[in-house]
Amino acid sequence: MTSNSRSSQSTHKFGTFLGVYMPSILTILGLIMYLRFGWVLGNVGLVKTIMIVLMASSITFITGLSASAIATNIKVGVGGEYFMISRSLGLEPGGAIGIPLYLCRTLSVTFYCYGLSEAILALWPVTEAAFSSYILKLMTIGFIIIITILSGKSAKLVLTSQIPIMILVGASILALMIGILSNDLQSPIIETTYRTAPEGFWYVFAVFFPAVTGFTAGIGMSGDLKNPQKSIPRGTLGAVVSGAVIYLIIPILLAITGALTIEQMSNPEAGVTIWARLAIFGPWIVYPAVWGAVLSSAFGSILGGPRILQALSMDGLVPKFLAKLSKSGQPTIATWISGVIAVAAVFLGGLNTIAQYVSVLFLTLYVAVNISAAIEQLIKEPSYRPTIHVPWYVSILGAIAAMLVMWLINPLAFAFALGLELLIFLYLISKKLEQQWGDVSTGLWMHLGRFALLRLNAKKVHPRNWRPIIILFTRDINEYIELVKFTEMLGQNSGLLTISKLITPEDKNELLLRNEIAYQMQKDLALVGLQALTEVHVVTDFKQGMNQVASGHGIAGIKTNTVVFGWSSTQDGKIKELEIINDLAQSGKNILVAHLNKPFLKKIHRRIDIWWRGKENNGDLMVLLAYLIQLNDKWRKSSIHIFSVTHSNDEKRILEDHIQFSIREARINAKVSVILAKPKEQVLDILFSESKSSDLVFLGLARSKNEIKERVAFIDNILSKLNHAVLVQNNSMESEIPIIFGTKNI
Fold it and tell me: In terms of CB atoms within 10 Å, which of 181, 294, 427, 636 comes out highest?
């Protein structure tokens, strides 16, 4: 058992109220409630204020529903929102959201502590500006250090300390109600003035919206909950609804009080003083409640941020030591690093501007949560069985609304947030991280694949749409990597390659690990930058098994049409290979036998030779394969040479005209050489003379079931004297390949 697991067992686990509801509701009922409600009401009136509250709360409620749906479908671990997004959308999208989210939570500690210091100093103003700035920063650093120490020591201590804060906040709201209702009342303020908000309704909405955010503070404690699947939905949705109800009551109270004029209400400088004037025992209750609300928000951020960093570390996105836990189960190292970052942020300056970027980055979390829930619903994974069902269009509506709010807050910050997360996503993709869980991306591709296969199956695949669908049989990818590179190159950007490994029931170890073997084959391909499908088939006999697998391989409109072999190094292997080829020829599969004497892709290649005899239909396929190879970067400047040998001048002229016409119709550039052989001159001698230095040579593979040993010797003689050679046997229908070139037989 690791130290982390031992620590986890000793961690105090929390229930719904203390672990989720309380940190969430205290973050919602924060500083903006005290600072901005009077200003909002004074500018837009009661009706539009209620509209703003309902619209803002609806966005958070939808996001809360989406988060609850995800939480009730999986066993939520440490990391809160990051954990849910990464387990739904995948590791890379999760990291793209999680890393900025961690920085946002950490910077939020600075903002809240800065706001707390300002609120306290407002009661004891310092006349000298420079000294005031110095005191402000010093107090902020002090608060950051204190809350970092407390949260690093015990989450229980921090959450328990929020109980008196919650009592203070509740008391301040009650004091406001009593103070207003016990004095003169008036008709509600419904006039829209935009007195101090000339930018209009949406500007006021954007200023108010951060008041309803922060309900995910409880979700951030997911790893410390007794029952996350139960507590997250109840605590989160309870906090959102409670906050919305309170936020509907407060503007009604402010609208009917006769103690303040609309001018006083809309003054942006009034802030907390409005509450202090209206509530009974105003300053004695309101100011401590404000300080407590700000401090509670800071506590929520310092608890959530390090746990996101811990989860990122556990998933390998940041160094592993950051996941280390203390004896009490706290992510101590992550907490201290978060505290250091928060202290450093004190000296950034321009915190108000940075706050907008943090708010917008935080809102991308809402977008990601809603999109995660929507995709889960749309792809209909059998494993997606949440106890809270949210229609996909509701979650999409929440995502769109969150993006609109991001734009309203700051268009530049909106573009910056998306750009930053895109860069992180692309970086994580380039790292080729190994993910240990399933996500919706796999289900999404399966959904799209199912749709595409059904569409293909309903259509007849025309020869015009022909492309190489290849299966390559190999025992070991690494041992035959040059052959794999060559075969993958044939299908790049157009075809599809499947690499198949055959095992027998006698291979007990491989039989048990066949899925792991196929996955390891994928990893081996990724190491050399190749892409292909990988399969492991269990067969009773290699020869029969290879024939059976290749004959029936593929699905719908992507049936395998080409089988590739590497020329065996043993006499028995060569004989068996030709026997398999003879059997496969009857199934209509094209056959390629490749023999690569040297590393195949080590240099820029210059020349491809095609030797065409004209007796069979192999020339069509050889020209097409040569063209496909030219699509590769290292072969792009290569030239194609078509050779044929004849023994008469009349035949030479006819062949030249026919081949030239054919390649013109095919729109492929090639140099044609029809060689007139001298009497008694052997075709093989001409072949070796012309192609001994060529980079790649294509030759036809005759169809014959007789004299296999003699054929093996003949093929060995040819392949041993060429750098790289491929024997080609076109077993497709006669019209299938030529139609691609717009011509009959080459």
Answer: 294
Token readout for 187 is 């008709």
| Residue 372 CA neighbour count, 13 Å, CB half | 32
- Length of the chain counted residue by residue: 746
The domains of the chain, with CATH numbers, are 3-430 (1.20.1740.10), 459-741 (3.40.50.12370)
Q: CB neighbours (10 Å) of residue 200? A: 12
CA–CA distance, 507 with 199 (Å, rounded to integer): 75
What is the Cα–Cα distance from 163 to 161, expressed in whole angstroms? 5
**Cβ atoms 13, 226 nearer than 8 A:** yes
In this structure, are residues 440 and 88 in contact, taking their beta carbons and an 8 Å threshold? yes
pLDDT of residue 745: 34
pLDDT, one tens digit per residue, over 238-296 is 999 999 999 999 999 999 988 888 888 888 777 788 888 899 988 899 989 989 888 88
Whole-prediction pTM: 0.74
Are 497 and 491 spatial neighbours (Cβ–Cβ below 8 Å)? Answer: yes
pLDDT at 64: 93
Angle at 66 (CA atoms; ends 436, 81), nearest 5 degrees: 50
* Residues of the chain scoring pLDDT < 50: 1-10, 734-746
CA distance 616 to 702: 8
Tokens 């059998």 locate to 382
Rounded Cα distance, 319 and 303, in Å: 20
The DSSP output letter for 587 is T
Helical (H) or strand (E) element with 471: strand 469-473
